[in-house]
Amino acid sequence: MNVCKKNLDQPSARVTKNTTIRKLVNRRSFSMVGFTVLARSGLAVAAVAATLGFAAPGHAEYAKVSDDLSIYYQKSGHGPLPIVFVPGWTMSSEVYSKQLAHFADSDKYTFYAIDPRGQGLSSHTEGGHFYEQRGRDLKGFFDVLGLKKVILAGWSYGALDVSSYLHQAGTENLSAFILIDGTPRTVGDDNSKEWVWYNRNDSDQFREFFTMPVLIDRQQANKDFAEWMLENPSEENIAWVSDISNQTTDTVAALTNEAGAYENYEADVKALEGKLPLMIVAREEWRDIVQNWVSQNAPSTTVAVMGKHLMFWERSDEFNAALNKFLETVAN
């Protein structure tokens, strides 16, 4: 669906600071239902997240971007150049804890990690769980915080969030674009050769894997999901991924996977060649596929290949070094 640029503006946008809630919960008794209630009411805060083990080392606030949506975000650093990282399917800003720490003392960049709608501690809205809306959500977030010339990054299905923004708003307010083990086109004929997630006929049942098991047996689905992402699928790491994923309801998790299967922003990313610095970080499994895509479509792209899907967390030193090197090429 094409959305005119003039429709991206959100009315009555303002920043809402966190309200501290003390002695509210303990980790053993608080449920994901509690997270949902707090997020809907606007009371979910960094203090609660820290109590439950979800807080990353950053300053956290809410940005109210529309009547029904407040986006929870964490930030670190105090420089003039904004970097915004969007997490993937059912994940939250917590996954970027090591990037928040990396930029904590920066006087050149301010690093923002957000929770998309329906995920983490952002509003659990009834509607809006499709990627055209998520692109508009990002536009609203930038407007509320007054972010200019953003270095925008999306991981996994978060690549669709940022590519949707690119499709609707263009490059006017961007200074660089980063895709982290995510593709702007979801479906193709052969995902063993094309830079896509799913086969059109779902012959390997990969699309089904992220939809039906989520509705039928969420905890087993979370475990399988975590094992697929991690180089070190320890019990502790699997529990950490599952706890984050559980903040997204079963229905929204299934819906956002299926909604993503209809998206194709590949032309928008191709059009960045020669116009905006582009970086693609890929897992080892995707090495040849991504390098072939880049050579055919955007040869000036910076490519880094490492680890598995959660490489920026498991191989944070390697990832952060590659990110730093790319940032040096971005014009101030």
Overview of this structure, please?
The protein is an alpha/beta fold and 332 residues long. The chain has a single domain, classed as Rossmann fold (3-Layer(aba) Sandwich). It is built from 14 helices and eleven strands. The strands form two sheets. The protein has a nine-stranded mixed β-sheet, with helices on both faces. A two-stranded parallel sheet has the order 8-9. Strand 2 and strand 3 form a beta hairpin. The radius of gyration is 18 Å and the shape is globular. The two termini are 33 Å apart. The relative contact order is 0.12. The N terminus is likely disordered.
Report the average pLDDT across residues. 88
Question: What is the rounded Rg?
Answer: 18 Å
Major sheet strand order: 1-2-3-5-4-6-7-10-11
Q: What is the CA–CA distance across the termini?
A: 33 Å
Tell how many strands the DSSP assignment holds. Answer: 11
Helix percent reads: 25-40%
Do you know the CATH topology?
Answer: Rossmann fold
Shape by Cα distribution: globular
By CATH's scheme, which homologous superfamily applies?
A: Alpha/Beta hydrolase fold, catalytic domain
Unreliably modeled segments:
1-7, 9-54
Which series of helices and strands comes N to C?
EHHEEEHEHEHEEEHHHHHHEHEHH
Task: Using brief descriptors, characterize the structure shown.
332 residues; 9-stranded mixed beta sheet; two-stranded parallel ribbon; 17% strand; disordered N terminus
